Amino acid sequence: MKTSQKPSEPTSLLGRLLRGAYWYGAEWYWTVTGGVILALIILITILAPVVSPYDPITTVGGPFERPGGGQVVLLAPKGSGIASREGLAVAVFYNTTPSVIAEEYGMTPRPYQVNKDLFAKVRAGEADAVLLSARDAAQALEENPDFVQVGEAFGPRFLLGTDNLGRDIVSRLIWGARAVLAVAILSALFSAAIGVPLGLLSGFFGGWFDRTLSLIMDSIYSFPGLILAIAVAAVLGTGVVNIAIAISVVYIPTYFRMTRSQVLSIKEELYVEAARALGARQREVLGMYIFPNVISTLVVVFSLNVADAILTEAGLAFLGLGLQPPTPDWGFDLNKGKAYLPRGYWWPITFPGMMITLVALGFSLLGEGLGEILNPRLTEE
Amino acid sequence: MYKRKFFFVLLALAVVLAVGLTACGGGKQASTGAGKTIVIGTTDKVTDLDPANAYDFHTWEIFHNTMDTLLHYKPGTTDLEPGLAESYDVSDDGKEYTFHLRQGLKFPDGTPFNAEAVKWSIDRVFKIQGDPNWLVTSFVDHVEVVDDYTVKFVLKDAVNYFPLLVATYPYAPVSPKCYPADQIASDSTCGGIGHYKIEKWTRDVEMDLVANPDWYGDPPKAGKVIVKYFADATTMRLALENGEIDIALKSLNPTDYADLEKNPDIQVIEGPGAQIRYIVFNSDMAPFDNKLVREAVAYAVDRQAIVDKAFQGTHEPLYSMVPMGMWSHIDAFPKRDLNKAKELLQEAGYSADKPLEIDLWWTPTHYGDTESDVASVVKAALEETGMIKVNLQSAEWATYTDQFGSMGMFLLGWYPDYMDPDNYTYPFAASDASDDIGSNYKSEQMDAYFKSEQTATDLRGAERQKVFEDIQKLWAVDVPTLPLTQGKLLVAARSNVTGIVLDPVMANHYFLFDKK
Amino acid sequence: MRSLGRYLLVRTLLTIPMIFVLVTLVFLILRVMPGDPVKSSIRPGAPQEYIDEIRHTLGLDKPLYVQYGEYLWDLLHFDLGTTLSPVRGQSVSEQIWEHFPATLELALAGILVTAVVGVGAGAYAAHHRRSVADYSLRLYAIIVYAIPVFWLGLMFQLIFGVWLRWFPIAGRISSLAVAPEHVTGLYTLDSLLTGNWVAFKDSVMHLILPAMTLGLYLSGVFVRLTRSNMLQILKMDFITAARARGIPERTVVYGHALKNALIPIITMMGLQFALLLAGAVLTESTFSWPGLGRFLVERITYRDFPSIQGAVVVFAVLVASVSLLVDVLYAWIDPRIRY
Fold this sequence. Notes:
The structure holds 3 protein chains of 3 kinds. Chain A is built from 14 helices and 5 strands. By secondary structure, chain A is α/β, with parallel strands linked by helices. In chain A, helix 2 (27-46) packs across helix 14 (347-374) and helix 13 (330-338) packs antiparallel against helix 14 (347-374). The longest helix of chain A is centred in the middle third of the chain and has 37 residues, at 169-205. Chain B is α+β, with helices and mostly antiparallel strands. Helix content of chain B is 28%, strand content 23%. Chain B contains 16 helices and 20 strands. In chain B, strands 2, 9, 10, 11, 12, 13, 14, 17 and 18 form a 9-stranded mixed beta sheet that branches. Chain C has helices spanning 2-32, 37-41, 48-58, 64-76, 92-127, 132-146, 149-163, 187-193, 197-234, 237-244, 249-271, 273-286, 292-302, 305-333. Chain C has a domain at 99-333: MetI-like fold. Chain C is globular, with a radius of gyration of 24 Å. Chains in contact: A-B, A-C, B-C.
């Protein structure tokens, strides 16, 4: 093994990285990039309650607030002497950020349906001032010169905007990572837990058991995974564990085939023969001599499998067969956002897709890189 | 034997036009429309052109324009008027309906219309046992030919809303020469006796309708109607904007209507639809067996928020199970009142520290993409009380329908089978029906109301109306189900199109469409 | 070629158990599904007797093994049954046959895009091995694989459909009234065959975005396949010989080497067929493309067993026959391969 030629331990992290590149070529950087992406995502996932600016399932602003939007301004009639916003009755458009946040800032909202003149309502004495989205303030002041802005713009700022129910997209992305990772990793664990033992037994004992199992596994393996997952997901219904099981069914054959082929080649090795000749029991041969040699490949397959599982989970959710509200989920958000795409609302669909790509990429890079490092024969040239 | 006669005079369609949208005077353009062609677009599909088997919105709309029934709804209302029958009598026990048919009519293939044809068509429904057959077979025992133009329906039990059933399409008389007697004719363009005849039909592509020269009433405004079938809403919207179609029926994307309203060449017409959305409570299941809880939820839901946020304005808030625009509707339920909801919750023993925890069930696969938003908005509104904690639970439609009875509180929708308040109330709150829908509500008072409503002789009389108002009032107190919203009918058309009359019967009247 | 004939026979027979396994699996999965296809096809709250009656006429009240036996028997006669819902009694084979050309057209167009992009880029990467371009293309392959295909579609819709308004974002054709006369069911081909230029332009405009989506999604795999195959070929003696003869490097790489690499690439394409189908299902949903994938997804929500089973059988047969074709092609090219 390559690690046996290990030179003296490099001290700095940079040094180690450079040495790594020296040993393993460019793949080393891929592995590290993948690892860094995943470490960040996992950190965010763990810290979700701390780093998430808002609750992901609560309306915190108006619908379709643009990225960076959300701030509001208070416009009062000239000479009204209004200097502070506390206790004011403010005219707002119904179902917009001002109507949602007015109370939070100590004002009483008087909501009006869109396309009504808020300024006229204030002039008629129905409200003390107008609370308006900061974006519209300049034009409104131009059209209503008898009003002035009171104080600075205030209120929330939605970094990536809000969705159709006025929920903060950043928060949904952060909390969505939890669901996606949970489903993907769980499903990969399930698949491995079933596929690996079956592959070990099948490869080790052979015979009709092996032939039947191989036929079934090959059949599943050759079939489009997503389509199978759709069918199983429809049976099991929603929920993190159920979706994970549905996806795991698809990937059991991957583990089975990988393990079986490894076992087939390892069991002919001399040291296995020797162990047998020395009277090791079958269970010992399998557990102590064969299984440990499968592990390094298993790690690679696992990492690549999680990447696949993330994409499959997102695909299921996009088709409306994945996790359901109130659990925030990226694929589901894409499914919802699709309906509003023709109106040009790009932010609800752009960011969740980026996140899916990023996480899947992280696992792919990690898997690819590890594959090259641990077992150069496993991946192509 | 009492006799009830309809007005023989068909209400002039011009009156209806005035109810509808036409800006011009109407009434004068009797036969000018013969050469006009109206092109309609839809994303719906014709499933099956056989009235003995079709049971969907769009196909029934095609029937509405191509085959008349013995009685039919007056456009723009939910009231009946004579169709192929000029009048009918009901026996004293309410089990025999005798229809007196119009004379001298014939089917498009030339076969004369008579009592024999009516009986043959009903017998056919019995033989075929298609999807909507229960509308006939659950009620009708058999049909007798009295003479050439008199036909008698003998019912299994007395049903006072039988005339409303007769207006549904399984009852539509069809030509015995043109349809096979015991087989479904899915692609038949024979039609019945209607305003239009089907000239040409290519499945999922186009249907051409031409005015029926033998139609007994006023001729259709447009001599020809072409229905174009679109695969998706976006393309249909473009076709409307480009003027390739005059009218876009069901349905564009909800967000399209708001955009199109700004286009001066296009008008968006809306009317109350027949679809209603509501919450069903399982009155046998804790905590919903407590009336206070159901009432508190009724005060806490925010219908306006559902309409604006989830439905993007394509629904309206609804305050009764009987939809707006239907005879006898009243706004029975109270407006949103959070304080009142809190009081009721307190009375039921809940507080901010000991909140009411409930599961709200919804289904992602039957009511479209908006359903998850409906559930989320309802949850948010209830939690605004600070004393309710809502867990959203979802299940596939097939599982959902199987779970009626084990879900405590769930979202549902309703399309009527016949246009009567009875169809919107009885299935949910009558002791012998409520188990099937999962409400399990039982009330002697309510049952008594239903009994008196179902035995009233005058279907649209003041006496029956009073009963339905009482039912709606009791509904708001007992809350077996909680009405939320009513779908709007939205039609987008070129601005020169007139005569679009929307009513909760849901079928569009192609024969009233006209253009300047 | 007697042995090839025998191989062909054995290999064909071997696909039968595979289809059988999938059919059985899907049959079992569907039957343990909670939820009732009959109830979901009629309005809520219908009386139980009515439901039982329908279930009886459809044979859903029979024991599972009887239903299974009957299903297999019908399948042997190429009978996929009739639909349960949303409309009862339509022929499943007809419905599948109606949706199949759409999927085929999308798949072919997608393969075309993949072939051009993937093979071209892969050959280039192999040619310029260990260059910046090589690493970028390998990275491209990994990134493309990580992008959800439906999101790629959504982004194309947003950019080219909504912002630039170049292409329509949904459906196969503006209106079925424009659709060309039915010859093969592939709109682009049919409109060419019948000389219907309006339909041709319209169907091509509709096809471009979905084909690009599916094609780019698959291209990652092909960049890698082409690259590794090319690298092997470039090491071979005849390439060295060609170079020695002074043939220009470009001709050697894109002429001699690529030509020889194409056959393994094409056969390996066959192995990616399942990936193509899965991608097609999502692409169809994104673009409202009326193909088999969308049909399958739609019918799952209705619990329309016969349609779901039918679609799965068709998918399984497709996968099996393509892999059969690939193996036979391989055996024919490389006579050493025999089982």
